[in-house]
Amino acid sequence: MPTTPDTAFDRATALTPTAGGFTTELDPGWDVGGGVLNGGYLLAVVARAAVEVSPHAHPVALSASYLRAAAPGPATLAVTPGPAGRTLQHAVVVLSDPGGPAVSVQVTTATLHDVAAEHSVPPPAATPVEDCFSIAEHAHLAPPGVQVPGLSQRVETRLDPLTAGWALGQPGAEPVMRAWLRFADGREPDPLGLVAFTDALPPTSWATGRFGWAPTVQLQTLVRAVPAPGWCLVEARGGEASDGWVDEDYRVWDSTGRLVAQSRQLARLPR
Amino acid sequence: MPTTPDTAFDRATALTPTAGGFTTELDPGWDVGGGVLNGGYLLAVVARAAVEVSPHAHPVALSASYLRAAAPGPATLAVTPGPAGRTLQHAVVVLSDPGGPAVSVQVTTATLHDVAAEHSVPPPAATPVEDCFSIAEHAHLAPPGVQVPGLSQRVETRLDPLTAGWALGQPGAEPVMRAWLRFADGREPDPLGLVAFTDALPPTSWATGRFGWAPTVQLQTLVRAVPAPGWCLVEARGGEASDGWVDEDYRVWDSTGRLVAQSRQLARLPR
After folding, report:
1. Which of A7, A139, B228, B259, by CA, is between 20 and 30 Å from B249?
2. HSE (side-chain half, CA atoms, 13 Å) at B15
3. Residue stretches of chain A with pLDDT short of 70
């Protein structure tokens, strides 16, 4: 592993090796409100642990079950690697806080190469970043009961006005959100950072005016390419909402318009 | 659990309880060619094991790492349940053949209720099933090197001619396939059957004339509702293809047009 840069994200995902895994200190600053840590942040910690024990450089697929909310503070990561192949390695990583297991993850690591895509998913038409608005700077516009989370101070989140009516008192009909994301301290995106970005927006149900916490039950994140420096465009789209369950799809494009990550999660609908 | 009906699918996924899990007999008839068992079939066996030990009735989310091809014949399922909640239960299931672990899965079980969707994904326009054609009955049309797999004799697969040019010597530009599916012996679909359906079509790369095996690396399947009896419409869509990797999205609608299951997988592109 190269030397880890000294940024908020790298500090918050730093690991100390132990027998069978790592210890870490979960940073309370990566919350989504109410002291609950962001699922993408937790998954990035897991991804770093898997890469550390792999002969390959990048997390390419992570499938996580969120067993319960992990508490900020000390945590352990138990890593059980599978056999390493020439192309990829599988591992199971369990993140536990003092209360027990919190996130259980199937991780696949591999090495992504800088080659052109054969078939690609182009980015949607989005408002240029300079015409978007920051969640953190518009805290006074937040809907009643909605806190501006610590996450939005770590990950600069500029909402596309076309899908941000909910933040201005005018929810829309479709559960879709778009935003430009970058680390607030200028850290450039990389595959580990992308993992965090694939669960970094508010629940898509907020776009339709249904506020409240939407706990993730399972989240699958795929990292498809090493991102170019600069802003990432993120689109989250709710699919079927039924019987208390909703699925959300994230797609992330880098500053060159290349699809670099995607995720799907099953979550509980806000009540 | 209710009495298991005597159908090909239920026999092929039957389990015998043991300490810590189950044994099963993987049926060589559910292959995708070359003696390789279908990933959806294996995932259905895993789903049945998770439901057996859960207080809840249905598999709602499964995220699987395919470690290596599982051999037909005797296999074991080690089930490690998490704490059971009122709404859902998580578990980890590892399916092993005599050679070792083959599939490692995060499973969430819950009970799906018969309620209307709040936001739904309508089915695509598809050719009526009576105007579609059967993979199994058109074996003579299979492209060179393409075997008609056992799977297509267990799961009746009627390809929509609009996306089946590849089977008639005229591959298309888009990696998309649609087909109507039902169990060949008349067994009606249910949540376990849907799990198998979310990985039941040929690789979407075949639609563009790129034949060959596309091994699944990770697969996430979500079951969203108990399906109505009758044919299911399945659409598989390839996304980003790059650097030897491809993602595929499946959506499954029941005979009433309701979205009942979906999946996403990361696979290796055929060479």
Report:
1. B228
2. 24
3. 1-4, 139-147
Question: What domains appear along chain B, each with residue ranges and CATH number?
Answer: 8-112+120-268 (2.40.160.210)
Cα gap A144→A150, rounded to integer Å: 17
Give B6-41 pLDDT, tens digit per residue: 999 999 999 999 998 999 999 999 999 888 999 999
Q: Is A267 on the interface with B (CB under 8 A)?
A: no
CB contact under 8 A, B245 and A60: yes
Q: Which of residues 95-114 of A touch B (CB under 8 A)?
A: 101, 104-106, 108, 110, 112-113
pLDDT tens digits along B100-109: 999 999 999 9
Q: Which of B66, B93, B21 is nearest to B267 (CA)?
A: B66
- A150 — alpha (psi -120 to 50), left (phi > 0) or beta? alpha
Bridge partners of B93?
Answer: B79, B105
* Residue in chain B lying closest to A174 (CA): B119
Which residues 180-209 on chain A approach chain B with CB closer than 8 angstroms? 208
Q: Which of B112, B222, B243 sits opposite A243 (nearest CB)?
A: B112
Let me know: does B224 contact B260? Beta carbons within 8 Å. Answer: yes
- Count the alpha carbons within 13 Å of A210 in the hemisphere toward its beta carbon: 19
Q: Do B262 and A245 touch (CB under 8 A)?
A: no
Residue pair B65/A108 in contact by the 8 Å Cβ criterion: yes
CA distance A226 to chain B (A): 11
- Residue that is written with structure tokens 């309620």 in the block: B115
